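Morning F.,

Quick status update on the modeling queue. The single chain you submitted on Monday has been processed. Sequence for confirmation:
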Amino acid sequence: MRRLILLPVLLLLLAGCQRSSAAPDGGPAGEDRWQPRPGIGWQWQLRGRLDTSVDVPVYDIDGFDQSEAAVAGLHEDGRKVICYLSTGAWEDWRPDADEFPESVLGEGNGWDGERWLDIRRTDVLEPLMAARVDMCRDKGFDAVEPDNMDGYRNRTGFPLTAADQLRYNRLIAGLAHDRGLSVGLKNDLDQIPELVDDFDFAVNEQCAQYGECEATTAFVEAGKAVFHVEYELPTSRFCADSRRLKLSSLRKTYELTAWREAC
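Structure tokens below.
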């Protein structure tokens, strides 16, 4: 009798598992999270008046600067929307900048008004980052792009290790997943083998310029998009390889305005 009862239950569970797989058009992974597929088109704009006319299924825009209405408008046009946040560096112009104590602020990261964060101090940073991811969720975003996720490879002013970075990156991924949002691994190429299962897609800058794009293939092999941008190379120098590797590649300016050249 027990076997007769368990069989239909087991079949229902299996059916539920099948329904939770990613849709072929890059649709939901599970009931709550979106899974972008390799090669999907996208637009990345962090500065200037938001241009919603680019005919692509994915937009990556600034989480603080863009409104709930802007996200809703992109959704009405059938787009998925990624929330850009800096999670590994402090930015002096953000509305929550004063909530970061001086003790967690390190060296500048090369951009005006930005300083690396001491990612070992999760007691301080976790609630601040949770609030930021809450903002993304509350504005209706589908995913998060957390930036500056490779501090351990840079001169931050702190003795960060690879283990510190893995721990922090997984913390950020967990904050997004706990809120039903997808999350991308930004750069951090050396740790892709350890982190590919923790993230839903990757975002990479300049892998073609530095001969590193092959390092992103673990995401593609897992059925996960790699959103890739070059700033200095013409598209003739990287698009053929991008198509071979199934990357979602753009040429952009460093200012990340609306201008783009797609492969």
